[in-house]
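Entry for the shared binder. Reason: the reviewer on the internal report wants the predicted structure included alongside the sequence.
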Amino acid sequence: MFLHMLCYMPTVGLASATVFHLVGDKEKEFPVIRVFGTFGWISAGIIVSYLLHGDTTALPMYVAGAGSLLMGLYSFTLPHIPPKGAGKKVAFGDVIGLDVLKRFTSRPFIIFILGLLLISIPFASYFAYVPIFLKSANISDPAFKMTFGQMSEVFFLLLMPWFFKRFGIKWVLIMGLLAWVIRYGLFALAAPEAIAWMMIAGILVHM
């Protein structure tokens, strides 16, 4: 798993960088492109949980492995995009990311990175523990139920260009953070009595 994640995680940033290089109006076009990633999450949840009922088996790993091979093959069909620094002399500072470290003199950048770090903590625990949380409440096919969050995400992603123009990036980020507060508030209220509708409502608050 460790070796797999070492190979996989860089592809997330690489895919985003490729998209931003190719699109013109990033605020308008990226949410529409990003929504197809959400469709992928929904498809995986439906196949693994609803159709195959493999939540508590090793089956998701086999499905993920097959999906990874297909994505690897698909990558060979992507357009040729040379690295940004292609043909330029690479300095040691570029390798260790000194240009990025300079950004830590910017107060907005520091606030953004700290916010990203803090929100990553509940984000990581969400996908690991919510299936257990739902199963303890006797909710069947928990991974399928979690796709309800991705379904609502499709709606919000398509509205994202309007939100950006109406409120700006700062308030969009704040609304996203507040959505996480509401989600875990609902989970906390639902936990003692295993209130299913409240758990599902918490899943639907997916921004």
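Summary line for the report: The chain has a mean pLDDT of 85.
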